[in-house]
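SEQUENCE-TO-STRUCTURE ENTRY
===========================
What this section holds: a protein sequence and its matching fold, both as plain text.
Question of interest: how does this chain fold, as expressed in backbone structure tokens?
***
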Amino acid sequence: MRAMADKENCTRVTRLSKKRAAESMAAQLQQQSKKRVVLGEITSVPNVGLSQISEQQKPKPRRAKRKVLKAAGKGVTEKGKHEDNGTDIDAKSDDPQMCAAYDSEIYEYMRQMEFQQKSRPLPDYIERVQKDLSANMRGILVDWLIEVAEEYVLLPDTLYLAVSYIDRFLSTNVLTRQKLQLLGVSSMLIASKYEEISPRNVEEFCYITDNTYTKDEVVEMEADVLKSLKFELGSPTIKTFLRFTRVSQEDYKTSKLQLEFLGDYLAELSLLDYSCLKFLPSLVAAAVIFLSRFTLQPNLHPWNKALQQYSGYKPSSLKECVMIIHDLQLSRRGGVLISVREKYKQHKFKCVSMLSSPPEIPDSYFEDVIVQ
């Protein structure tokens, strides 16, 4: 009897050993199949447009073959009524996160926050503060972070906050180009902790850089960023103000989802361009909606009274920002920074980056006489 029991125990141990050995082998094979690519050396390209950066400078993070979950942001909305029919847009929403009862107060609070100095980076910090960085380098870093966010299936709000932290930190702290990627992953780590339900850990952000930086270096930079921002992490971003996309869909017969994805695409394109820092996030969001509507229906005026009321912007005040984003859309700026374009070529995003836009926007669209 005892001999049988010993035999059975030995069999269990053997099976357990084989199972552990198989799991270990699978883990090793999986680790070997992963690709880690370091962000290429960021070199200074003075007085050169983003479209002229060499291919070797483009960052290329690894891409895992896995299904990407849809992460649709929820949050702040704008409240208002169409003057022609008195329809309350937000009252139609059953989503409790839209906070229909309080959205006008929330939106007004966000508008006040974006004017605060602590929430905004210097629009010319590269010229005034930095000695070893250029707008080109910033564009390369943001382009890479867009791929990192896609690879790690992070919320859009996480990406926008990370870029905001980078710009705010660089507005007050001199940094060398060798530490620019370190700042990028540390800012993404902070934003991930702020926004994500299950944030990525430090080791994963080290891994995505091919372990160019140690865990201690990332944590140390994380602390430096938090101190520099004085732990003020909840500043409004362009994504915050894209909530009035629903208003822009009211008089459109085209796919509402297509209009939404196109707005997301153009907004992420604007992150690449350093010159967009001089605009308030709410203005960039309004310019994105303007250009999205123009792209889908170029023969119709892209602005109306409802959009002007909700956003607080007239067409004339949007012109400069719209023209910059339009140039980005047509690859007249930032042509070699392709992460956003590749991302939005996917069918899950309705292939909106492949939509063609007329090369010129009529000047009459920027006049302040608005159609109903």
The domain at 121-228 is CATH 1.10.472.10 (Cyclin A; domain 1). Confidence is low (pLDDT under 50) at residues 26-37, 44-92. The chain has two domains: 90-114+236-366, 121-228. The longest helix spans residues 2-33.
